[in-house]
């Protein structure tokens, strides 16, 4: 059996993100039990493209969950309940209150920029009211790479405004090792997350570097700043048929609970870091976002020689 997120990150059993509010920004979120179960926490859906967007308590349904797989996996990596695996494959902070900021489908680069921008504007107007401590973005840039100043990109400008107000922002570096990380990970104040590959034995010293984006931005910021699992991650995977399950590149041979499979991408590494932050806030509720960010970086496992190319430690 492949290790769970919490076991691989060695998160103490008593820290689950309880009573900490975090936000995940993505396109669409299904009503899947792993992210919509309200047995141990509350999950709210916010359709940020609506003119009067308000958090609505999200109730799980029986599926089929045929849309929003990326949003499901991102949210589950941060704070999935592990409902369909009896808690075994929970996310990093399974009792954190989730605010799922649903920006809507992305059809064009302009569409993505406008909708993610809208989600960030909702966050800017509402994060204090709903006591949201941190948020994660897993989308790629639509405009440029980190080779240009952050002021040139409206998404990074909004990220800097939010970080300046005191919100912790976390972002995936991207999965293309030929490129410097793009927005929003390239924003100076956003915590950029790269990845390692989980080995089957679950031992960190055997983890290989994931081929994610890396490099120095215009502002001389190295990305990634911290690492989390980005391959061989077990997350809820809503197969639509037995045939789809059997055609999956790993699920049919992994002996995982039905509805789970291995996947990869820094889109799922970054939410784990937000979940880890929620666990820190549970233990230190009065800490600022800067203190939590500093704690994450200071306690990350020193880079192993095989991770040297990423120049970062693992959470």
Question: Could you please describe the fold and organization of this structure?
Answer:
With 315 residues, this protein is of the alpha/beta class. The protein has a single domain (5-314), classed as Rossmann fold. The chain has 8 helices and 13 strands. The strands form 2 sheets. Strands 1, 2, 3, 4, 5, 6, 7, 8, 11, 12 and 13 form an 11-stranded mixed sheet that branches. A two-stranded antiparallel sheet has the order 9-10. Helix 7 crosses helix 8 (289-299). The longest helix is centred in the middle third of the chain and has 18 residues, at 109-126. It is globular.
Topology summary:
Elements (H helix, E strand, L loop, with lengths): L4 H5 L11 E6 L6 H4 L6 E5 L8 E2 L11 H11 L17 E6 L6 H18 L5 E6 L16 H12 L2 E5 L18 E7 L10 E2 L5 E2 L5 E2 L2 E11 L5 H6 L12 E5 L1 H18 L5 H11 L13 E2 L1
Helix pairs in contact: 3-7, 4-5, 7-8
